[in-house]
Amino acid sequence: MVQLEWKANIPIPSEYKFLGKDIDFGKAGIIVESQFSNYPFLLNNTLRSELFFKAGTVFASQPTQLVVLITKAGMFPASNSTLYYEQAVKQLTALAEYHVFDVPIRLVGLFESKNTTVPITWTVYSSTRYSRKV
User: Residue 91 in contact with residue 56, Cβ under 8 Å?
Assistant: First the structure.
Protein backbone atom coordinates (compact mmCIF):
# COMPACT_ATOMS: atom_id res chain seq x y z
CA MET A 1 0.00 0.00 0.00
CA VAL A 2 1.27 3.47 -0.93
CA GLN A 3 0.70 6.22 1.62
CA LEU A 4 -0.28 9.31 -0.37
CA GLU A 5 -0.64 11.55 2.70
CA TRP A 6 -3.80 13.36 1.59
CA LYS A 7 -5.54 15.20 4.41
CA ALA A 8 -9.34 14.94 4.64
CA ASN A 9 -11.90 17.42 5.97
CA ILE A 10 -9.35 20.20 6.45
CA PRO A 11 -10.86 23.01 8.53
CA ILE A 12 -11.27 26.38 6.85
CA PRO A 13 -9.38 29.09 8.79
CA SER A 14 -11.54 31.03 11.26
CA GLU A 15 -11.39 34.27 9.24
CA TYR A 16 -13.17 32.43 6.39
CA LYS A 17 -15.67 30.36 8.42
CA PHE A 18 -18.50 32.16 6.59
CA LEU A 19 -17.49 30.03 3.56
CA GLY A 20 -18.13 26.69 5.28
CA LYS A 21 -16.44 24.42 7.76
CA ASP A 22 -13.88 22.48 5.69
CA ILE A 23 -12.49 21.45 2.34
CA ASP A 24 -12.78 17.82 1.31
CA PHE A 25 -9.11 16.96 0.72
CA GLY A 26 -5.77 18.70 0.44
CA LYS A 27 -2.09 18.07 -0.11
CA ALA A 28 0.89 20.20 -1.16
CA GLY A 29 -1.14 23.28 -2.14
CA ILE A 30 -3.89 21.26 -3.86
CA ILE A 31 -7.53 21.54 -2.80
CA VAL A 32 -9.80 18.67 -3.85
CA GLU A 33 -13.57 19.09 -3.69
CA SER A 34 -15.93 16.17 -4.35
CA GLN A 35 -19.04 17.57 -6.02
CA PHE A 36 -21.80 14.98 -5.70
CA SER A 37 -24.58 17.24 -4.44
CA ASN A 38 -26.60 20.09 -5.96
CA TYR A 39 -25.10 22.08 -8.80
CA PRO A 40 -24.94 25.47 -6.97
CA PHE A 41 -22.20 24.03 -4.74
CA LEU A 42 -19.87 23.98 -7.75
CA LEU A 43 -19.85 27.78 -7.86
CA ASN A 44 -19.59 28.03 -4.08
CA ASN A 45 -16.53 25.80 -3.98
CA THR A 46 -14.83 27.38 -6.99
CA LEU A 47 -15.36 30.92 -5.71
CA ARG A 48 -14.08 30.13 -2.25
CA SER A 49 -11.12 28.29 -3.79
CA GLU A 50 -10.38 31.42 -5.81
CA LEU A 51 -10.38 33.45 -2.59
CA PHE A 52 -8.06 30.91 -0.90
CA PHE A 53 -5.74 31.08 -3.93
CA LYS A 54 -5.61 34.89 -4.00
CA ALA A 55 -5.22 35.12 -0.21
CA GLY A 56 -2.48 32.48 -0.17
CA THR A 57 -4.47 30.44 2.33
CA VAL A 58 -2.48 27.47 3.61
CA PHE A 59 -4.03 23.99 3.63
CA ALA A 60 -1.93 20.90 4.33
CA SER A 61 1.20 23.05 4.89
CA GLN A 62 1.29 24.96 1.56
CA PRO A 63 -0.59 27.93 0.07
CA THR A 64 -3.45 27.07 -2.28
CA GLN A 65 -2.11 26.59 -5.82
CA LEU A 66 -4.63 24.32 -7.58
CA VAL A 67 -8.22 23.12 -7.17
CA VAL A 68 -9.40 19.72 -8.38
CA LEU A 69 -13.15 19.12 -8.67
CA ILE A 70 -14.49 15.58 -8.86
CA THR A 71 -18.02 14.87 -10.06
CA LYS A 72 -20.00 12.07 -11.61
CA ALA A 73 -20.99 11.80 -15.24
CA GLY A 74 -24.61 12.07 -16.36
CA MET A 75 -24.77 8.33 -16.88
CA PHE A 76 -25.31 7.88 -13.14
CA PRO A 77 -28.92 8.65 -12.26
CA ALA A 78 -29.48 11.03 -9.37
CA SER A 79 -31.99 13.41 -7.88
CA ASN A 80 -33.09 16.73 -9.39
CA SER A 81 -30.56 19.57 -9.31
CA THR A 82 -27.60 17.22 -8.85
CA LEU A 83 -24.41 18.34 -10.58
CA TYR A 84 -23.13 16.21 -13.44
CA TYR A 85 -19.71 16.39 -15.08
CA GLU A 86 -21.20 17.54 -18.37
CA GLN A 87 -22.94 20.47 -16.65
CA ALA A 88 -19.78 21.35 -14.71
CA VAL A 89 -17.82 21.51 -17.98
CA LYS A 90 -20.32 24.01 -19.41
CA GLN A 91 -20.37 26.16 -16.27
CA LEU A 92 -16.60 26.27 -15.85
CA THR A 93 -16.01 26.85 -19.57
CA ALA A 94 -18.36 29.86 -19.57
CA LEU A 95 -16.67 31.28 -16.46
CA ALA A 96 -13.18 30.70 -17.87
CA GLU A 97 -14.16 32.46 -21.10
CA TYR A 98 -14.58 35.66 -19.08
CA HIS A 99 -11.51 35.05 -16.88
CA VAL A 100 -13.52 34.75 -13.65
CA PHE A 101 -10.86 32.54 -12.03
CA ASP A 102 -7.10 32.84 -11.69
CA VAL A 103 -6.69 29.64 -9.68
CA PRO A 104 -5.90 26.67 -11.92
CA ILE A 105 -8.90 24.31 -11.91
CA ARG A 106 -8.93 20.69 -13.03
CA LEU A 107 -12.25 18.91 -13.45
CA VAL A 108 -12.42 15.12 -13.08
CA GLY A 109 -15.48 13.21 -14.28
CA LEU A 110 -16.32 9.72 -13.05
CA PHE A 111 -17.64 7.56 -15.89
CA GLU A 112 -18.60 3.90 -16.09
CA SER A 113 -17.73 1.74 -19.09
CA LYS A 114 -20.55 1.23 -21.58
CA ASN A 115 -22.35 -2.10 -21.40
CA THR A 116 -21.45 -2.40 -17.73
CA THR A 117 -24.08 -2.97 -15.12
CA VAL A 118 -23.86 -0.56 -12.21
CA PRO A 119 -25.67 -1.80 -9.08
CA ILE A 120 -27.96 0.90 -7.74
CA THR A 121 -30.69 1.26 -5.17
CA TRP A 122 -33.76 3.30 -6.10
CA THR A 123 -35.68 5.08 -3.38
CA VAL A 124 -39.27 6.06 -4.12
CA TYR A 125 -40.58 9.09 -2.23
CA SER A 126 -44.17 10.11 -1.57
CA SER A 127 -43.77 13.22 -3.74
CA THR A 128 -41.60 13.82 -6.80
CA ARG A 129 -40.09 17.04 -5.41
CA TYR A 130 -38.71 17.87 -1.98
CA SER A 131 -40.22 14.90 -0.19
CA ARG A 132 -38.33 13.20 2.62
CA LYS A 133 -41.03 10.58 3.19
CA VAL A 134 -40.12 7.23 1.64
Answer: no
